[in-house]
Each structure stands twice: as C-alpha cells, then as structure tokens.
C-alpha cells in the first residue's frame, strides 16, 4: 500500500487525496482549452475582409422583409447559407426559427449567439436604392443587420473550428417584435421547443443596433438593461343612446377618457418615484357616429417597468381605476394585462469579462455604459434562464427605431461580426472560471481552497 504524506510529514487522508485529484483534473481541463491561436487578430482581419459580403447580405434581407412568424424565405436563405458552411442546421423551431451548431475541438463548453429575423408592418420611406419590395413592411428595427452579423460571424468561426475550445450554437429567431394579440414571442416558442438543449447552451450573447450613437461604439450595463413589457387590452362596455339624450345611455367614450387620465395617476402618485415606469395607451377606438352615445370602446397600451413588483403594482392600480369607474359610471369592462416579456438582464461575470474584451477591441472611448432603457426585447427569455450578455451597437444617426426613415450605417457590419465572434470565443476560453460550467462543484472548491489546505484537509 502506498502512503502519501504532506510536506510536514502528516499522512494524507482519503478526502484529501480525492480533493487533490479534483484540483489536478480542473487544472488540466483548463489548460486543455488554452490555445496559442490569435483568435482576435484573425477575427478582426476576416471581419474587414468579409465586409462587402456582409453588405450584400444585409441588403438582400432589407429588400425582402417578412413579418412575425412569416419569415419563410428569410429562414430558408439563412439555413442554406449555414449548411454551406458545414454547420449542423435544424429548422422549423418555434415556427421559422433556426439552430445551427458549430462544433470546435471539443464538445464543451457551449455558448449561443442569437440574431432576430422579423420585420415590422411599416411602409418604408428611406429612399434607399435597396428599399423594401414588400409593400407595407420594412426592417425598421435593424434586424436585417442582425442577420448579416450572425451569418458572417458563423462564416469566420467555421473556418477556425479546429481551434475553438467548445461548441457555438447560432440561433436565428422569429418574431422578436411580438404578436398583435400578445401571444408568446419567438424566443419563448423556440425555448419551449428545446433550442437551449442538445447541446445544452451555457451562456447566450446578442446585440441590437441603436441610433444616435457613432458606429463602432458599444453600449450596455450590468444587470437590468431593458424593461419588462406588458401588453394591455381593455374593453369598456356602456349603453347606447341618442347623443341629445346622454342621460339615457352610459357613455363608454367618457369612461375611457376618464380611465386614461386616471391611469397616469398610478404612475405619478402610486408608484415609488425612484422606480422607473412608463404607461402608454397607444390605440383607442369606439363609437358609430357623432350623434350616438358609444356603448363600447376598445383600448390597447403598453406598460414598461424594471421590476416585477412595480409591474404588479401598476396592474393592480389600473384595475382599481376601472373598478371605480364601474361603480361611479355604471360601465362594465374587460381588462387583460399580458406580460409579453421580462426585463433583459446582463450576467455580472459575463458583463465584466466582455467589457474588458470590448475595450481591447475598440478602445475605452468606444465602450459606454447606460441607464436602463424602457424599450423591450424578448432576449430576456434567454437571460432569465441562462447567463447572458446583450449589448447595443451604435448605428449612426439615420432616423429612430420603428420609424419609416430608419436605417443603419453599413459600416456597422464590420463591427458586429467581430464583436459576436470574439465574445463567443472569450466566453468559451474563460468558462472554467465562470459559475455556469458543467462541473460547478470544482469551481466551488478550487478558488476557495489553497493547495496547502487540500494537503492538510
């Protein structure tokens, strides 16, 4: 029998030998993924070389925008492109969604890169030579650029897969913008159908273009980045009568106007002023003609918050307003408060890791932090399930998001692929130091116990 002793001559017990073995295995597993290959110089060089192709791809998608869950031709083009790169491609996930798997020199760890595909029901008015050919639809939120960024990142990484220390999963997602009826978005549907499994994705990265910031600038923050989004649907039922005899009816339009005014008191007088929130009624319709008391009004709106507590407070406040009007005016109502998406949150460890990377790639002056933004993004569905990082990429000053005149500066297509590809490699390279590895027990012990502690355990 072989006896193992510490430096001081004490005999090591069985637990110490096991822990020492775990420590050695962890060290070897980490060293196994360290490589001398200069990923970042290679990716930067290829992002510049493939810039003309990225422009062509973006213009192709901009010419042929397709709306929520109808991204059929878009999805087919993406799948064909990825298959030619040699990726394992799965289609039809959550409708038109795509999952493409790029296996590196080892199966684990696994990181995902997500891009959204859907366009908006907006008539384009940019005057671009490649303006939308699909009347009534346009890429007014930059998803055409997102797709091009994802495809070029996949092309670059597929050419160096023998060096990649893990697996990268590319997720091309339908219906980020949401459905008119408030039903589950593309992210939720893809997750429900298993996009995060087989292989099990351990971290997710995504980006969104943002106007009013220079191209080559990234904007983000740790923790909550974007808002909870709730879709509000209200119907107020009154009683019709002649407009000359309002006392014989119950005016649904008057009740709706009263409700809208009082909803704002929920924001200004009930919510804690330190908590950010927005309540907007964006659509209202009712009545049949000018001399008839309306017996029905329909309203639609959105509520944006940065905590679940504030979201619930506003929902209850709106319901109280409607109940009070029911008592005082005699109306009845239907109130649906649909939680469309949660707030996007950035994992602290990933944020610090990629902030450092972005400063190396872009320089300190081009890496900015922001306050939480009231816009929503269903990337939140990933960020509340696995460690995630989402950032904005400056798109220049050419209109606002969701506007008929919006477009991105094409130089953005040189930065997007580089940042996505480098982020994926950086996460894979540092996964043994992160909390989401496949063997969390090792990561619990190794940083906390010194070698001397193990030997004397």
Brief summary of the model shown:
By secondary structure, this protein is α/β, with parallel strands linked by helices. The chain has helices at residues 14-33, 39-49, 51-63, 72-84, 143-158, 186-192, 252-270, 308-329, 348-362, 380-383, 412-430, 440-445, 451-455, and strands at 88-93, 97-103, 110-116, 167-173, 203-210, 218-220, 223-224, 228-237, 241-242, 277-286, 292-293, 296-305, 332-341, 345-346, 367-369, 388-394.
Describe the overall structure.
The protein folds into two domains: 38-223 and 346-437, 3-Layer(aba) Sandwich (Aminopeptidase); 228-341, 2-Layer Sandwich (Alpha-Beta Plaits). 37% of the residues lie in helices and 21% in strands. The protein has 13 helices and 16 strands. It has helices at 14-33, 39-49, 51-63, 72-84, 143-158, 186-192, 252-270, 308-329, 348-362, 380-383, 412-430, 440-445, 451-455, and strands at 88-93, 97-103, 110-116, 167-173, 203-210, 218-220, 223-224, 228-237, 241-242, 277-286, 292-293, 296-305, 332-341, 345-346, 367-369, 388-394. The strands form four sheets. The chain has an eight-stranded mixed beta sheet, sandwiched between helices. Strands 10-12-8-13 form a four-stranded antiparallel beta sheet, with helices on one face. Helix 2 (39-49) runs antiparallel to helix 11. It is elongated and about 85 Å long. Mean pLDDT is 89; it is low at 26-33 and 435-457.
